[in-house]
């Protein structure tokens, strides 16, 4: 599920908006608060590989 907060009334977006989603499975069901706290952050890193000649 992707959740994006609503825009303020009268606001016209100029570009695509970013959103967030929750994928913690059982953890989201167990936490009884609203909004749910962020538990983890997933980051991907792809190092630049320079090949010499």
Structure explained in plain terms:
This protein has 53 residues and is low in regular secondary structure. The chain has 1 helix and 2 strands; from the N terminus they run E-E-H. The chain has a two-stranded antiparallel sheet with strand order 1-2. The relative contact order is 0.18. The radius of gyration is 18 Å and the shape is flat.
Residue share in helix: under 10%
Calculate Rg over CA atoms: 18 Å
Question: If helices are DSSP runs of H or I spanning 4 or more residues, what is the number of helices?
Answer: 1
List the helices and strands in order: EEH
Q: Which stretches of 5+ consecutive residues score pLDDT under 50? A: none
> Alpha-carbon distance between the termini?
47 Å
The average pLDDT score comes to: 70
The strand order across the widest sheet is 1-2
Q: Could you tell me the strand content as a percent range?
A: 5-15%
Number of strands: 2
Structural class: little secondary structure
Q: Characterize the biggest β-sheet.
A: 2 strands, antiparallel
């Amino acid at each position: 599920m992707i959740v994006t907060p609503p825009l303020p009334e009268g606001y016209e977006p100029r570009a695509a908006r970013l959103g967030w989603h929750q994928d913690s499975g059982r953890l989201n069901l167990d936490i009884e608060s609203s909004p749910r706290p962020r538990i983890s952050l997933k980051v991907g890193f792809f190092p630049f590989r320079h090949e010499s000649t």
